[in-house]
C-alpha cells in the first residue's frame, strides 16, 4: 500500500491493558499504518496479568520484552527497528516509565537508525541528508556554538592540502549569502582593505567561509542557514546548492562545515565531531548530545583547560564518549592564537571571541611566542556595542589591531582600526593537543586517517 508506515509501538504496564489495546487498534486501523512490533518497556501498576504470554494475549499481538521488565530495553528496540525495517517508533508510554531524559535516549535509538520517534504531542525526525556530492567528503559538526568548528575546518583543510588531496570547504552560517558564494582563497589576496570593500557592498565578510579562505588559502563556498533544530536540522539553507557547486569546482575532496549545533544536511562519507569541554556537562550527556557524539569517526574535545573546564570534567567527557562511541578516536585540545603576519615589537590590540576568563593565557602566549606587547584586549568581538567601547579605550595605545575573522571583525574592528591609521592583522586559532607540541602529530594523523577512510568509502560505494 502506498505510504504504508511500518510502526513499532512502545507500551507500558502503567496503563490498563484494554486501554493500550484500544490505542493499538486505532493505530492499526489507520490505512497508512501497520504495527509490526510491540515492545514492553516496563511498569506493573495496572497489570493484572504479568506474564509475557498473558500481556501478549490481552493485547492480541506478540509483544517483545527485554531481559529486565523494570528497565527500558534500548538495545532491543534498536534490534527490532532493524529486524522489521521499521519506518517509525510510536511511544504510547508515559511517566513514570519514561521521563524527559529517557525519551531523548529513545529518540536517539530511532534517529541513529534513520527513522522518526513520535508520541502524542511530539515528533523527532531524522536528519536531512541530501545525497548530492560526487566527491569524497567529510562533515565537521559540533555540539554547540563557539567551540572551534571553523578553526578546526581550516586546520584540517591545510593538512589535507599538504597531503595533495586538494580540498574545498562548504560552510553555512547565519550571516551567509543569499546564493552560495565561491571565494577563491587560493587565488585572491584577502587583505583588510579587500574585506572592507566586500563589507561595504553588504557582504558579511567575516562569515565562516571567508575565515576558511583566509586561513587556509583554499577555495571555499559560503552558504546561509536560519534556525537550528534540537537534532541538528535547519529551517532553511542553500547548502544543497552549495554542495552541488562543490561538484563542479577545482577540488577533489569536500569538507562540509556545520554551524553552531546545526548539522550540514548533506550526506558525507565520514564525520568529525567537536565537543566543547566548556559546555554544560548535561548538554553533552543528555538531550541530543549523545546522538551527535555517536555520529563521529573522530572526536576533538576543545577548550580543555582552566578556567573553561577542569581536568576532572575533561576526563568525565572522555570516559562518556568512550562508553557510547568506543570506535571513535578522541583527542583533547586547546586553542592558541596564530597571527597571519609578523607582529614582533608591535603594540597590539587583540580582539577575540574567546571568553574574558582565558584572556590572560592568550595574552601571555602571544607575547611569549610572537614578541609583541598586548596593550589591550576585548572578548566582545560578537557584541558590537561593547566591542566599540573597548576599541575606543585602547586604540590610541596600539600599532596593530590583531583580530580573529569572526562576527564584527570587519565592519567594526577592521573599519575602526583602518580609520585610526592602525595596521590590521588577522589571527588564526590553532587546535593544540593537550600534552604539548610533541603530541600534535596525533591530531594531524587522526584527521588524515578520517580523510583516507572517506576516500576509501567513496571508492567502495562507486564500485
Report on the architecture of this protein:
With 463 residues, this protein is α/β, with parallel strands linked by helices. It folds into three domains: 5-124, NAD(P)-binding Rossmann-like Domain (Rossmann fold), CATH 3.40.50.720; 137-336 and 434-461, P-loop containing nucleotide triphosphate hydrolases (Rossmann fold); 337-429, 3-Layer(aba) Sandwich (Rossmann fold), CATH 3.40.50.2300. Helix content is 36%, strand content 24%. Strands 7, 8, 9, 10, 11, 12, 13, 14, 15, 16, 17, 18 and 19 form a 13-stranded mixed sheet that branches. Strands 3-2-1-4-5-6 form a six-stranded mixed sheet, sandwiched between helices. The model has no long low-confidence stretch (mean pLDDT 93). InterPro entries: Cyc_diphosphoglycerate_synth, P-loop_NTPase. One of its GO terms (cellular component) is cytoplasm. Belongs to the cyclic 2,3-diphosphoglycerate synthetase family. It is an enzyme of class 6 (ligase).
Blueprint of the fold:
Layout: E1 5-11, H1 17-29, E2 33-40, H2 52-59, E3 63-65, H3 74-84, E4 88-91, H4 100-111, E5 117-119, E6 122-124, E7 137-142, H5 149-162, E8 167-173, E9 181-184, H6 192-200, H7 208-216, E10 219-226, E11 236-237, H8 239-248, E12 253-257, E13 270-276, H9 281-285, H10 289-294, E14 298-302, H11 311-324, E15 329-339, E16 347-351, H12 359-370, E17 373-378, H13 384-394, E18 400-404, H14 409-419, E19 423-433, H15 440-462
Parallel strand pairs: 1-2, 1-4, 2-3, 4-5, 7-12, 7-13, 8-10, 8-12, 13-14, 14-15, 16-17, 16-18, 18-19
Antiparallel strand pairs: 5-6, 9-10, 10-11, 15-19
Helix pairs in contact: 3-4, 5-7, 6-14, 13-14
